[in-house]
Write a structure and sequence with these properties.
Structural class: little secondary structure
Oligomer: single chain
Biased composition (Low complexity): 10-58
Protein name: Candidate secreted effector
Low-confidence stretches: none
Distance between the termini: 23 Å
Region (Disordered): 1-60
Strand content: 5-15%
Length: 73
């Protein structure tokens, strides 16, 4: 039996916004090249922590009623 269709997100609660990237971790700065020789190049900077995408709300994964029982209110 297929599951019930998910309810659309409520306009009052459209979803949890993503977490912005952390300003305290902008990235690892590159290490400068070693002056002893060209065999130790600088390490490139690592990007910061990206924001987490928003999470949608009101998604029903399982419900006990058959799909024919659902009536749009």
């Amino acid at each position: 039996m297929p599951g019930c269709p998910g309810k659309p997100a409520s306009p009052l609660n459209p979803g949890r916004p993503g977490r912005p990237s952390s300003p305290r971790w902008p990235g690892n700065p590159g290490r400068p090249a070693s002056p002893l020789g060209p065999f130790n190049p600088g390490r490139p900077s690592r990007p910061g922590n990206p924001g987490r995408p928003g999470v949608p709300v009101n998604i029903s994964v399982f419900c006990p009623y058959p799909p024919s029982f659902i009536v749009d209110l």
